Amino acid sequence: MALTLLRGIRTSTLFRANFSLFCTTQRRPLAHFTTRAESVQTTEPKAVPKSIQQATKEAAEQKTQGFESVIGIETHVQLSTITKAFCSCPNNYGSQPNTTVCPTCMGHPGTLPLLNAKVVECAVKIGIALNCKIAMTSKFDRKQYFYPDLPKGYQISQFDIPIAEKGYLDVDIPVEFGGGHRRFGVTRVHMEEDAGKLLHSESGNYSQVDLNRAGVPLLEIVSEPDMRSGIEAAEYGAEMQRLVRYLGVGNGNMDEGSLRCDVNVSVRPIGQSEFGTKVEIKNMNSFSAISRAIDYEISRQIILHKENKADQIVQETRLWDESSQRTFTMRKKEGLADYRYFPEPDLPEVVLTSEYIDEIRNLMPELPEAKRRRYENMGLSMQDVIFLANDDKVAHFFDSTLEHGADAKLAANWIMGDITAYLKDEKLSIDESKLTPLELSEMIAYIKNGTISGKIAKEIVVDLIAKGGTVKSVIEEKDLVQIADPAAIEAMVDQVLADNPKQLEQYRAGKTKLQGYFAGQVMKASKGKASPVLLNKILGEKLKGSC
């Protein structure tokens, strides 16, 4: 019997646990890193070979060494649904351990999963955004493996018929990393559930199991092996995070584990068509860490090739150690046969209609790539474009400012400059600021018509961010209207020159840099309100006449 999804979110009574418990498993002490290894003990080399550390830098120039890297990424996106994927337990991050669980997500016998329709909606959104082919019919499968935080002994996932496949993601590389546009293929997008979490004791003698995360909905996005450097992989990951946030399907916070990137790295001699042995790297909690981990792993593999030790590169999972800036073995990599996939018998097929997909497509917001191209067509620099489109809240603020008639470049300068600096110091996001797009556009208009100077505007914008209000009220309250009367400015210039005869004599003797000193004194006397254009014109004429 097929399940046809139309729209909406399944609602049901939330299961509320009235207890909080930890399941405890005894285990042998582990090294500094705690891993998901079952039988492979984590060991760390006593010393990091100096040549490997030096080779990290050389990885950026790998083509001159006769090798190229091949990189693919598996991105796990935790969805911000109200309930879990297959039960009515709340999907809340940070709850007390084992308080958002029920018999279904704890894997009790006799319980049956019920698909959350919102998960399918999020998957279709991501599939459309990644230019994928959406499967009109897909199914769920059981992925079998044993681990203490997987209570059922299997994970509900999708194997041979994912909900979306054969797409791509466009990425703009920042100017500081060489710039340029890249297109990376996306192999597939599939739905699955998350596992629980192990909390390891400080002594390393035991672990506690928190099943709150068990059953939380995930989308796994698998890229094609199209990346060739750590920078490209990191920018791919960052663009995926932007996409998730723009679509509103998840918060994309790496520190919470809401977005996790596992990278597969191999190297091969340039000109060789066959891939080398790939190594999976985990435990990277930032995009810069992804870049550094990949560069290290590329260097490690190149060194082994050059030393005729390529047989030591095995298919395995390695962990990135941030403190030592290197990877080390976690476990040997499982193959597909080890997971013993078979169709999930307790869930029907997911059958979509063209109307359902079109409805979602029509409600899609403008995505980061389209926004960057639009900003680029406004004449903004690539640096401006990437900055503004990086955060959907900043982009929305910028667009709203333009809707009120502000000049695009001036608005970009203010947002990227004084506004961002103040928000960073105060640890605020732009939507937490009391400055509105309307008032920013008003302030820019006041600067352009000469009512206030740029210097006065810097004082006003701080007030507006912190306290709110209008530009006009701040100007009137603090008497900040720019002095644009030539006679008034000329009087102030005459007074400054009269009060500084020594400096005037030095100027006449050829020390022309003192013009800046005189201008500063006039601005001080006017409390920063003198029109800079008129001031420089009048001061220049006065000084020229005095020579």
Automatic annotation (TrEMBL):
Residues 396-543 form the Asn/Gln amidotransferase domain. Pfam families: GatB_N, GatB_Yqey. One of its GO terms (molecular function) is ATP binding. It catalyses: L-aspartyl-tRNA(Asn) + L-glutamine + ATP + H2O = L-asparaginyl-tRNA(Asn) + L-glutamate + ADP + phosphate + 2 H(+); L-glutamyl-tRNA(Gln) + L-glutamine + ATP + H2O = L-glutaminyl-tRNA(Gln) + L-glutamate + ADP + phosphate + H(+). GO terms for cellular component: chloroplast; glutamyl-tRNA(Gln) amidotransferase complex; mitochondrion. InterPro entries: Asn/Gln-tRNA_amidoTrfase_suB/E, Asn/Gln-tRNA_Trfase_suB/E_cat, Asn/Gln_amidotransferase, Asn/Gln_tRNA_amidoTrase-B-like, GatB, GatB_C_1, GatB_Yqey_C_2, Gln-tRNA_amidoTrfase_suB_CS. Keywords: ATP-binding, Chloroplast, Ligase, Mitochondrion, Nucleotide-binding, Plastid, Protein biosynthesis. GO terms for biological process: glutaminyl-tRNAGln biosynthesis via transamidation; mitochondrial translation. Its EC number is 6.3.5.-. The keyword Thylakoid does not apply. It is found in: Mitochondrion; Plastid, Chloroplast. Allows the formation of correctly charged Gln-tRNA(Gln) through the transamidation of misacylated Glu-tRNA(Gln) in chloroplasts and mitochondria. The reaction takes place in the presence of glutamine and ATP through an activated gamma-phospho-Glu-tRNA(Gln). Subunit of the heterotrimeric GatCAB amidotransferase (AdT) complex, composed of A, B and C subunits. NCBIfam families: gatB, PRK05477.1-2, PRK05477.1-4. HAMAP family: GatB. Belongs to the GatB/GatE family. GatB subfamily. This is Glutamyl-tRNA(Gln) amidotransferase subunit B, chloroplastic/mitochondrial. The gene is GATB.
